[in-house]
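Dear colleague,

Following up on Tuesday's group meeting, I ran the structure prediction for the two-component complex that the binding team flagged. I've pasted the input sequences exactly as they went in, so you can double-check that nothing got truncated or mislabelled along the way. The structure tokens for the whole assembly follow below. Feel free to forward this to whoever is handling the docking comparison.

Inputs:
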Amino acid sequence: DQQVKQNSPSLSVQEGRISILNCDYTNSMFDYFLWYKKYPAEGPTFLISISSIKDKNEDGRFTVFLNKSAKHLSLHIVPSQPGDSAVYFCAASATGANSKLTFGKGITLSVRP
Amino acid sequence: DVKVTQSSRYLVKRTGEKVFLECVQDMDHENMFWYRQDPGLGLRLIYFSYDVKMKEKGDIPEGYSVSREKKERFSLILESASTNQTSMYLCASSFNNKNIQYFGAGTRLSVL
């Protein structure tokens, strides 16, 4: 049973435009959500996170939105740059889970120059 | 800066061999994790440890074991490697009660 779903395997956007990456979850115990970025042959790197007490968190070009009622979050990248081309993983955790994360399958973002 | 170091970037082993993957972190993190990443399947948790000598099974522990004798080191062991264990293996660590995990660069293991 997949508790964190990234239903679109890939996304292609033009440089300078907005990239919107979506993520859905099913476990209502999840209360903290993270996005990781992964380049080929490298480990994932932490990008941005959001607690369930918030509905938005912003860091530079990256903004994460959380809709708890819909169990949905999204990562917005504005403006998109070619260096943003990577695989993006959505992850979720629940309080008391010893920092255990449940990851989605990832989405490959391609930013066209 | 947090540093998680995996001993090998690439490894080629034969079916039936015993394989050790080593991971060391330098941030005094309590928690350490082993994942494997396969195309279309994302990151799947194999084992994790929240203290020295403690271990817990993740989602796919079959065919693997782990060892954590020191706080900074977490080893993944394939007792008898099989071809379906060909994968990218990723180690991560985190502070207790902190959700952000920091990853190593990964070990690409090929079992022939």
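Chain A has a mean pLDDT of 94.

Cheers,
M.
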